[in-house]
Amino acid sequence: MDRNVLNLSFEVANTSAKRMQVLKFLKQHFFLDEPIVEASKLYEDEQGLKELENYTKALIDDDLSLIVSDLTSKEIAGVAVISVKYKNQTKSVQKIKSKKFERVAKFLEHLENEAKTFQRIDNLEKAISLDMLSVNPNYRGKGLAKIMIEKVINFAKEKGFKLIRIDCTSLFSTKAALNLGFESVYRIKYAEYKDDGEIVFKINENHPHQEANAMLQIINV
């Protein structure tokens, strides 16, 4: 089978079964090798992984996430977790027991705050957020991340959204977003991010993923 010629289908994860497919895929291909999960050693913390799963479920429950399947092999080639962020959104209060996950959650909140999403356009009330993007290892290096981001952009345009946000925690997602017209409005090197004076993400200097970028693209304006 030649996976260089992709025969893809796209479907929205808007049923219980499809939401479970997305979560199962992320647990297999995203949770363990995502840069901030890896660097924080969250994978060593059973409670932390459970809380990461609950955090992800809440995002998937927006019923906007995307499943990309290879019609030839019948495999899921990738998933994109998509949600809507609102200007005056009340954050759900979740009791976090895992110190490692608490630090990851605080970092993601830091990126969101520094992006200043709702200050970018006057009277902006909501925005599309691409929260997680994961590609099956069998399909990496074939431009699938770019294809999925393009799908998100087209969806946002069709629905009349004016802004899309992505928090890119890897070099690969950052490059894909930049190539599609996103702007990095905030970046921070992992070696410089501290919580209570302690470096949270310990990444070797030769590791390809050295920083996180809060990315935005204004559309329909």
Helices and strands, with pairings:
Layout: E1 8-12, H1 16-29, H2 35-39, H3 46-60, E2 66-70, E3 76-86, H4 99-115, E4 126-135, H5 144-158, E5 163-168, H6 171-179, E6 183-189, E7 194-195, E8 198-199, E9 211-218
Parallel strand pairs: 4-5
Antiparallel strand pairs: 1-2, 2-3, 3-4, 5-9, 6-9, 7-8
Helix pairs in contact: 1-3, 3-4
Describe the structure.
The protein is of the alpha+beta class. The chain has a single domain, classed as Gcn5-related N-acetyltransferase (GNAT) (Aminopeptidase), CATH 3.40.630. The protein is 34% helix and 25% strand. It contains six helices and nine strands; from the N terminus they run E-H-H-H-E-E-H-E-H-E-H-E-E-E-E. It has a seven-stranded mixed β-sheet with strand order 1-2-3-4-5-9-6, with helices on both faces. Strand 2 and strand 3 form a beta hairpin. Helix 1 packs across helix 3 and helix 3 packs parallel to helix 4. It is globular. The termini are far apart. The mean pLDDT is 93.
Essential attributes:
221 residues, alpha+beta, Aminopeptidase, seven-stranded mixed β-sheet, 25% strand
What's the story with the biggest beta sheet?
Answer: 7 strands, mixed
What is the gyration radius calculated from CA atoms? 17 Å
Low-pLDDT segments:
none
CATH C-level category: Alpha Beta
Counting DSSP H or I runs of 4 or more residues, the number of helices is: 6
- Provide the helix percentage: 25-40%
Query: Based on CA inertia axes, which overall geometry fits?
Result: globular
**Spatial separation of the terminal alpha carbons:** 43 Å
Instruction: Name the average pLDDT.
Output: 93
CATH topology: Aminopeptidase
Query: Structural class of the secondary structure composition?
Result: alpha+beta
- Find the count of extended strands (DSSP E, 2+ residues): 9
CATH homology-level superfamily: Gcn5-related N-acetyltransferase (GNAT)
One letter per element, helices H and strands E, the order comes to: EHHHEEHEHEHEEEE
Please name the CATH architecture: 3-Layer(aba) Sandwich
Give the DSSP E fraction (strand runs of 2 or more residues): 25-35%
